[in-house]
Amino acid sequence: MKNNFIETQSHKWPQKTARPLSWAVYALMLSTFAFGMAEFIIIGLLPNVAHDLNVSISSAGFLVTGYALGIVIGAPLLTVVTGKLSPKSVLLLLLALFTLGNVLAAIAPNYLTLLLARIIAAFANGAFFGIGTVVATEMVAPDKRASAFATMFTGLTLANIIGVPLGTFLGQQVGWHSPFWVIVALSLLAFMSITFLIPRTQHTSTSGLGQEFRILGRKQVLLALLMTTFGFGGVFTIFTYITPFLERITGFSPTAVSLILVLFGVASTLGTIIGGKAADWKLMCSLLVSLVLLALIEALFTITGHNMITAVVTIFLFGIAAFAIIPMLQVRIVDRAKGATALAAAFNAAAFNLGNAGGAFLGGIIAASPQLGLNAITWVGAIVTVVGILITLWSMLLDRH
After folding, report:
1. Above 50 in pLDDT, residue 91?
2. Does the entry feature the keyword Ribosomal protein, yes or no (predicted)?
């Protein structure tokens, strides 16, 4: 089977005016908003879900792990399976699968149903980002590709600023099922937007599946994926349990936590912008510095998390540092995976979420431990990030030889 989303030259996008193409990219941005809200909404509602479904906080944390593992499996699998379809058809199929998963979550009567629903929705997530990235950058002129990429991914950061905090507040006031209905509505709107705004393309494939998968044999590609897994794994060791941490350790009310999540969303947007500019400047040096700063902030959170003022400041810095590394890691994998762009993007999405799943799982064990508890998740997260730093140093050393 051949994958049709690999080479820029393989697509024959209709020559249209700039305005329709711009709106098409905004349709993708709306989709990433829905995906981002679905992925992160459960974090703000962790105590509510745990109480309502009569499970522990650590068990509820597996809802984050399950979603991440769904992306790990679904991203490369669906990218390959849908390789003979047009990009537009694939995007619509993935959105349909995503909507189905969120409908199931919105009516889930128990923990296992909710976990299954999260996995179904997650299957579509990584593949959508991989294929959507290629579509967004190929619908515009070469000098507008960076802007198209940034516009699409703005939906993810806006989800953290607007969608997750408002969804958390709605879930706390009305019930945790309600935000999933909002996500369903957003998904349907995104489906209609893509239907009408993204052109159907005619294209030919330029590389075979075996050739594409050979990128996994490149040492620097594997190291880039490991950098993503461990570099971002430390973030989710902490962030998965940030709501109970802020409520139980710092002493914030649930309403205050919702506002703090808005602040985190603003910080994540700033971090994405800063990280993008830094990646254009000096990629690997910027990535190394960012990871070191991230590890230091995570470690300091063990101390600053006990005071409301210093906790808020740390959360803001944490958001900037955590999301600054995302564009850097994305650029690194694309640079090292020439000839298999979409598949590399899918594998990197899987690597991000393998880190998310591992971090959430590790954080759950730490949070449930009588000897360690919630306060220990911060310095444990820092240790995971340090592993990412060591892998980055190894990769930089190989670059010099």
Report:
1. yes
2. no
